[in-house]
Design a protein that fits this description.
The protein has an eight-stranded mixed sheet, sandwiched between helices. A five-stranded mixed sheet has the order 13-12-14-15-16, with helices on both faces. A three-stranded antiparallel sheet has the order 2-4-3. It is α+β, with helices and mostly antiparallel strands. The chain folds into two domains: about 250 residues, 2-Layer Sandwich (BirA Bifunctional Protein, domain 2); about 100 residues, Anticodon-binding domain (Rossmann fold), CATH 3.40.50. It is built from 16 helices and 16 strands. The structure holds histidyl-adenosine monophosphate. Histidyl-adenosine monophosphate binds next to strand 6, strand 10, strand 11 and helix 11.
Length: about 425
């Protein structure tokens, strides 16, 4: 038996209403804040990720899905959404438009991680990026938007962790002090942190091993090393959050798992017991566009994992609006009635009414059982008598009543009571979900 690859999952019909719910809230918040959708390819030149998320991060070293296509080009499955957005920003000359450019995406990301609850090899991110503006008010807006999105989902229990990791001017001085501090404790470091000490010292701070955490407690704080501009930026971000009454916690050990960040970094942690994984994270990446060959373009953004959001919605037993169901089930008895049922189903569908028609030659009891399990509002029954009279039996499954009605009457009354839905009301996958 084939199974979905480890760390991936099928999203079954009964799960789709959660996805539809989350995506609708995402699209709504993006509309409110003026973000436009962008869909990027599911694979890119592998260097886009390996160069931008950089060496020393787990993502660059161990987690990318890299493959060669038949022409020998090295490609990578999309590992995250920010670098592709920057690539598209440059490729399509979006820097020529008035800045900032605000874009959002909903799509799959692939990371070869050890699968566990809330951590998958294929997950889906909702993310948004504002490119081309250094104003700390934009950092505040991006954080506010994340907060408003989570609140709109009905997930009020989270904390916003905030830090600044400085810029290319002030970070090297801090890293030197950090390396000095950790060198004094080298014997107690885990093997990964011994490598981090050389390759990616900032990541020493968020090692989860107890012995390393102890060393982190006494480590120097980056906020004491910020240059005057980064200091001012960080103060303004905090001030903006206070003005909007957005609660946050300063966390000097927050450094994020990707290497492109500068200045503001933030993460959203769920406050549910037992859930340690971040609901989302983001920050500034003022040098990323330049690193990809563009002009200096300050930018800031955020992304959240949809599977983790749904996990939290379920944990909190959130009531999600049910998916659209078919209006009626059409049952029939006998060969003549089967043909009438086929014609009726076609007529109703053309009138915009969603129906499911029985198939094969099941007993009426079997067909009614099927109608019950589908949960349609009506069952339409056609027998030999109804074929002769051009009528049907219309059974109202909710009020437990039934009537004999003419076919013309049936179409008219179902149409009046069930106006045709527009596609976006029905489909859980908007076109940007790739
Ligand atoms: P990230 O923190 O690597 O940041 O991922 C963002 C979110 O995606 C995480 O907080 C988590 O909710 C979800 N996520 C990440 N990996 C997995 C996984 N293996 N399984 C399930 N969910 C996962 C970024 O990707 C940045 N591009 C965010 C950003 C946007 N920064 C600036 N703009």
């Amino acid at each position: 038996m084939y199974k979905a690859p480890r760390g991936t999952s099928d999203i079954l019909p009964q799960e789709q209403n959660y996805w539809k719910y989350v995506k609708e809230k995402a699209v709504l918040v993006c509309h409110l804040y003026g973000y436009q959708p962008l869909t990027t390819p599911i694979f890119e030149d592998s260097r886009l990720f390996s160069r931008t998320v950089s060496g020393g991060t787990d993502l660059a070293d161990k987690e990318m899905y890299i493959f060669e296509d038949r022409s020998g080009q090295k490609l990578a499955l999309r590992a995250e959404g920010t670098a592709p957005v920057c690539r598209a920003y440059l490729e399509h000359g979006l820097f020529n438009l008035p800045q900032p450019i605000k874009l959002y995406y909903i799509g799959a990301a692939f990371r070869y991680e050890r699968p566990q609850a809330g951590r998958y090899r294929q997950h889906h991110q909702f993310g948004y990026e504002a490119l081309g503006d250094v104003d700390p008010a934009l950092d505040v807006e991006v954080i506010e938007m994340a907060q408003q999105f989570l609140l709109s989902l009905g997930l009020p229990k989270f904390s916003i962790q905030l830090n600044s990791i400085g810029c290319e001017l002030c970070q090297p001085g801090y890293i030197k002090s950090l390396q000095q501090h950790y060198s004094n404790h080298i014997a107690d470091l885990c093997p990964d942190c011994k490598t981090r000490l050389l390759k990616n010292p900032l990541r020493l701070l968020d090692c989860k091993k107890a012995s390393c955490q102890k060393i982190a407690e006494t480590a120097p704080k980056i906020t004491n090393y910020l240059c005057p501009k980064c200091q001012e930026h960080f103060q303004n971000v905090q001030q903006g959050l206070k003005t909007l009454e957005i609660p946050f916690q300063l966390n000097h050990r927050l450094v994020r798992g990707l290497d492109y960040y500068t200045r503001t970094v933030f993460e959203i942690e769920p406050q549910e017991e037992g859930s340690q994984s971040a609901l989302g994270g983001g920050g500034r990446y003022d040098n990323l566009v330049e690193q990809l060959g563009g002009k200096h373009t300050p930018a800031v953004g955020f992304a959240t994992g949809i599977e983790r959001l749904i996990l939290n919605l379920k944990r909190q037993k959130m009531e999600i609006p049910p998916s659209c169901k078919s209006v009626a089930f059409i049952a029939y008895l006998g060969e003549g009635a089967k043909i009438e049922a086929m014609k009726l189903a076609s007529r109703l569908r053309q009138a915009g009414i969603a129906v499911i028609k029985a198939t094969g030659s099941k007993s009426l009891k079997g067909q009614l059982r099927q109608a019950n399990s589908l949960g349609t509002n009506y069952t339409i029954i056609i027998g030999e008598k109804e074929v002769k009279n051009q009528t049907v039996v219309l059974r109202d499954m909710i009020n437990n009543k039934q009537d004999s009605v003419s076919i013309d009457e049936l179409v008219l009354s179902l149409k009046q009571n069930n106006p045709p839905r527009i596609i976006s009301q029905i489909h859980s996958q908007p076109p940007d979900m790739i």
